Structures are given as C-alpha cells and as structure tokens.
Amino acid sequence: MKTRINLYVPALQPVREQLPLSKSLAVTASVFALAVFVCIGLYWLVDKESQQQKMLNAQLSIEQGRLASQAAKLSKINDNKQLLDKIELVRNQVKNKKRVLAALDNQTTNHGGFTQLLLALAQVSDQKVWLTEIRSQQGSLMLSGSAKSSQAIPKWVSRLNQVEQLKGETFTSLTMHRNDAVINFVLNNQPLTTK
What we know:
Strand content: 15-25%
Order of helices and strands: HHHEEHEE
CATH architecture of the domain at 114-189: 2-Layer Sandwich
Oligomer: single chain
Largest sheet: 4 strands, antiparallel
CATH class of the domain at 114-189: Alpha Beta
Number of helices: 4
Radius of gyration: 48 Å
Strand order of the largest sheet: 1-2-4-3
Distance between the termini: 154 Å
Shape: elongated
C-alpha cells in the first residue's frame, strides 16, 4: 500500500538548468580573456603603426630639408642674369643650327639622286605594276611601265605619295593605253615654269 501521494505534476517539477553557474562563469572568463588578448594585440598594432608613422615623418622632414637646400641652390643659379642670358643665347643658336640641318637634310633627301629615287620606288613595288623606264632630270620625273589591270595603276600612284622621297611630288599627267594583255602607262612630273 502506498503511504505517499505525489501531488506534483511533471509541469511543476523544477527544470534542470542548461547552463549552470559554473559553465557560465567559465564562458564569461574565457570571453574576458579573449577580449584582453584582442586589446593587447590592437594596442601592439597601434604602437607599431605610430612608430612607423614617426619614422616616416622623420624621413619626410629630412627630404624637405634637402628640397629646401636644393631650392636655395637653384634660386642662387637663377639669380645670375648674365649666365641665364648666355644659356638662352646658346639654346637659340643650337635651335637655329638644328633647323638649318633639318632643312639641309630635307633638301638632300628630296634631291638625293638616282639611288634615293630607286630605293623609294622599291618601297612601293608590287606584282601588279612594273616599271620599264625611269627618267629624272633637273627636277622633272618620268615613270613609264606596265600593269596587269587598270585599277592597279591608281593604287600604285597613291602609294607613291606615302614614300618619304616622293612626298610632295605632283604628277602633271598620266597616260594609259592597252597593249594586248597589259596596260602601259606614262606618269610625268614637269616642273612648273614661272614667267
């Protein structure tokens, strides 16, 4: 026979704690220790960055000192008016001499003789157009040759203007006539005569 009666239902029974006090103290202590380590690490990084910043500021002040000394030297040089005038005069003379040399070089290139002309014509040669006669006398130029098709001749003439030796040359006449399977042409450049 029962001598005890249990009046408590299971809902009224005390619930066992999931996180007892000992575990919560251990978790709190470990979080606190982790926070302390993070703070120490951040302090170390900030200290290292501040030391690096001080070192860079020291280097910057040294470089600014060097810059100031170089600026002082430069201002001393610029204060010498006679020396600057001589330098400007020499620069102008060099510029004028370069201009004269360029003009002479251009003149030599434009009137370089038959070799220069042949080299220039060799740059634009192709299989569709070939020359049979070249005449160059006293500024006049006559080129005669043959082509496989009539469309090849204007293309070849336009390429002549791209060559440095023949740049600026003006051809006054182009005559073409068909002979069997080829087209013969004569390209003339007569110098303009002033009266």
